[in-house]
Design brief:
Helix content: 10-25%
Structural class: alpha+beta
Distance between the termini: 22 Å
CATH class of the largest domain: Alpha Beta
Number of strands: 19
Shape: globular
CATH superfamily of the largest domain: Naphthalene 1,2-dioxygenase Alpha Subunit, Chain A, domain 1
Strand content: 25-35%
Number of domains: 2
Strand order of the largest sheet: 11-19-18-17-16-13-12
Amino acid sequence: MIQQKSLDWAEAAPERSMTLPARYFYDPKVFAAERERIFYPAWHCVAHQSELAEPGQFVTFDILDQSVIVSNHEAKLHAFYNACQHRGNRLINERRGKTGPVFRCGYHSWCYDRSGALRNAPRTERLPDFDKTQYGLKPVKLEVMGSFVFINMDPDAASLASSSEGAEAKMAQFLPDLANMKLISEVDVIVPANWKVIMDNSIEGYHFGLSGPVHKELAALIDFKQYALEAHDKWWTYIGPPKGEVDSAYGVPLQGATWQTDWFFNIGIWPNTTFYCFPFADICGTFLMIPLEPEKSLLRFGYYGPAGRAMPEVTKSCIKWMNEQLGPEDILLNVTNQKGLRSFGYNQGRYLIDAERSNESEHLVHHFHRLVHQAVKPALVAAL
């Protein structure tokens, strides 16, 4: 008889800790707890400020069953739920765009200005005591960090600035053109893997020299012995300096190119946002791991480059290399990892964590798992 796998996870010293049990990566009860206790109360990166610089510009952000609109109204950003206050119809289906003076509901033509205030609602003049000011779109918290716009659906959430103190300064240190970025492209990829499987893969260097050939190409650009992974509670970094005497990258000579940094720079914001720059690339990348189902995620890759500056060939080659080589190699690891977690022959393993917290240590994975476990444990105890 096959025994049920346990959800129990005892927090221990990282060097001696067992990994998060396999059920955390596919169990619907865990996914439901994450929805309520991780994703609904979290800060989510929606766009760069440049995408909302003009009056009428808007972006939408969908997370699970919720959708939020962020718009520019009279040079101020506003965020509100994407639901008409008449019968709940979704107002906007596009990811980004530009509207006129109002957002119009396609069902009964209720119209809201770009701040979310109700401006027109046909036939409501026939209703007794109908007050338009009481039927505006419901607001959502909004904050800007590093020129990127974040939203949070929890009205009582701590500010992003307080929960990620120090992160913005670290971004500015390695990404000097943050305030002057423009969107180059955005790519959405659906992967049959739990969002945490994808995160785990991104925050450890153990597999760099041991998995596929493209990871070895990346490791050849950086001084991997000095690759450092640091946890700061609700944010973390993994950063490596360039290897000396590199004269080409991604198959292209470096001569004459410009770049944000020659370092391999990554910063993660709890729970699922990563900003990064690959060595010698003149871009800031965004990497969002958006959960869809317990074993299905949407990966959103955004590429932002300095406005008013021609993109170097090295950067073009880097984006192509990430989309066509490194990304697929990582995604294959995500898929095979997810399949293995379902095996009757596996439940938990050991983190490879050394006392030095070296370049190949998995201490960031342990740190991330601890945050997940702390968030969902109360809900799981109540549900089981």
